[in-house]
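Morning. Coffee machine broken again, so started the prediction first thing and wrote up yesterday's gels while waiting. Chain of 190 residues, entered below exactly as on the submission form.
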Amino acid sequence: MLPTPEGDGPARPAGLRIGPLDLADRVDEALRVQAVAFGLSEEEVGIRRYIVQRHMTCRGARALGAFTDDGALAGFVYGMLNDRAYWWSSVVEPYLRASGHDGWLDGSFVITELHVHPGFQGRGVGRTLITRLTDTAEEPRSILSAIDTESPARGLYRALGYTDLARQVHFPSASLPYAVMGAPLPLRRP
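Came back before lunch.
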């Protein structure tokens, strides 16, 4: 169980250390954070374990974690250079083409997952993770998908400069529609 966060600040949001994450090695811990933050079932966690491990072998894949003082993972982000051959791109491409934004699939760093344990949300952890990860991207822009509803996550993405490129995107295994969002890099700062 993660401790209650203490303190806050730009260098160490919520009293956490932000740093490189060997996601392949700590995939189970990351998926526990994602399961709590995103409400995943054990079956979904099992499927995502395989997906995350495969993603970490992709070109340009990298991850950052938010760590408590005792080394527990309180949040994580990972992404990679987008490729039109990836499954995600093949699903979103028709939606982006219909909205005139399919060019965003080229030359973009895709944020694949960003999750923060609920006990640490609302303290700048997600903002720090995503900005630090994209600050190292060589690509001129970033894309991601998020559930297509007004939420704190969508508010964060908008504050960082992401705009809707396509809405009501339906992934085969998801019950809710998603929005695809894009932003020029570097991301906007407050």
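The first helix runs from residue 27 to 38. Going to sketch it on the whiteboard this afternoon.
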